[in-house]
């Protein structure tokens, strides 16, 4: 069975910092293409921050032309106001690739860590170390970019199961 090249963008949503990472997967071979962090202005009104996040995502999507997107699910934290703000940013992160016609998969943080490190409770440093092993050319400057690459790697490993789940629904 021949495998084909698929370009994946991984996204780690946040209102202050949204990480992104783009890889190519061909079978089990992974290649690093790029990563970074979108930083909406923290002192701007909410609408302007969300618009800046959308513009940044749209620019990255246009530059790398991914075939599929993967987004890390967020946990509900104890502060309802923070959870609501994160949910608004997450909505923009899900919307931007969907507007471009990309399928968007979502993965729990524990699955991302387990897929990349082998343990669902792995520390951020362990994730970052495995990113450097799996994608030797990658040198993410922020934890958010490293997390986004981990999400992309997770999708590369689980995308067949995700596609089957969409068919079953």
Main sheet makeup: 5 strands, mixed
Assign an overall shape.
globular
Strand-pairing-aware structural class: alpha/beta
Share of residues in strands: 15-25%
> Rg, please?
15 Å
Number of helices: 5
Low-pLDDT stretches are none
Proportion of residues in helical segments: 40-55%
**DSSP, total strands:** 5
**In what order do the strands lie side by side in the largest sheet?**
3-2-1-4-5
Instruction: Return the string of H and E elements.
Output: EEEHEHEHHH
Mean pLDDT: 90
State the end-to-end CA separation: 26 Å
Please give the structural blueprint:
Elements: E1 5-12, E2 18-26, E3 29-38, H1 46-64, E4 68-72, H2 80-99, E5 104-107, H3 109-116, H4 124-134, H5 143-168
Write structural notes for this entry.
By secondary structure, the chain is an alpha/beta fold. It is 50% helix and 21% strand. The protein has 5 helices and 5 strands. It has a 5-stranded mixed beta sheet. Helix 2 (80-99) links the parallel strand 4 and strand 5 (104-107). The longest helix is centred in the C-terminal third of the chain and has 26 residues, at 143-168. It is globular. The chain starts with a strand and ends with a helix. 36% of the residues are buried. The model has no long low-confidence stretch (mean pLDDT 90).
Relevant terms:
about 170 residues, alpha/beta, about 50% helix, single chain, 5-stranded mixed sheet, 5 strands, globular, about 20% strand
């Amino acid at each position: 069975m021949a495998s084909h090249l698929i370009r994946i963008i991984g996204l780690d949503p946040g209102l202050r910092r949204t990480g992104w990472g783009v890889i190519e997967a061909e079978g089990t071979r992974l290649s690093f293409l790029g990563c970074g962090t979108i930083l909406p202005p923290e002192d701007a009104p909410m609408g302007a921050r969300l618009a800046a996040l959308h513009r940044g995502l749209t620019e990255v999507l246009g530059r790398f032309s991914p075939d599929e997107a993967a987004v890390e699910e967020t946990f509900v934290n104890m502060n309802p106001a923070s959870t609501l703000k994160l949910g608004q940013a997450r909505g923009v992160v899900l919307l931007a690739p969907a507007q471009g016609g990309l399928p968007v998969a979502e993965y729990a943080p524990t699955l991302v860590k387990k897929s990349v490190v082998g343990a669902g409770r792995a520390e951020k440093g362990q994730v970052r170390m495995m990113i450097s092993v799996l994608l030797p050319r990658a040198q993410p400057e922020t934890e958010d970019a490293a997390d986004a690459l981990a999400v992309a790697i997770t999708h590369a490993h689980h995308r067949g199961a995700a596609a089957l789940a969409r068919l079953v629904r």
